[in-house]
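Database export, one record per block. Field names are fixed; values are copied verbatim from the stored entry.
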Amino acid sequence: MDAKDSHGPRERLLDAAGEVFAERGFDGATIREITKQAGVNVAAVNYYFRDKDELYAATLRHAHSAACELPYTDESSLSAEERVHVFVHNLLRRFLDPLRPRWHGQLMAREMASPTRIFGQVVEESFRPKCAWLQRALVEIGGDRFSKTDLDYQTTSIIGQCIFYRQNRHVIQALFPGLLAPDDLIERLARHITDFSLAAVRHMQPANPAHDHLLESR
């Protein structure tokens, strides 16, 4: 069976739009090219997404959430430490899973480098809830001794470690051959980043109050 027949027109539009947007950017992509690649007529865009802006927003959401779903409803059944691990594991899976379509990462990288008017919407709908989910776990681990700025630093540090392995994979492989061997890679990295981060959170001291106040007042 043809691959196009295994998904409905909406899913085919998302996949085709992701590839075209990732290659050409929002301004360079055309509805005609997207619908041709998806094997649907132009009217399908209006039917499923209303216009090009909504199609792009839906494609960004799909790219972000496809491999980065968090069990929000099961939050109470997981320890804080387990939730940190779940967050890291899902983020690494999104970055490093070889089965994930390449356009997912390419589109998000393009959007990060040159945000469109849709970016703020995606941040509020997708990024912020996931960061808040992680920060609630960090609060349980660190107690009330950390300020909001401390938590923001901890959150960005955890995310930054995951991004490092994605963006610098070839350098790491050259410096430390075998470290990123394909077998069980995501699980090993997730455990390392989680353990490293949890040890830091448990032992670090809060930021200087005066410095923290200065940052928050800017």
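Remark 1: The two ends are 58 Å apart (CA to CA).
Remark 2: The first helix runs from residue 9 to 28.
End of record.
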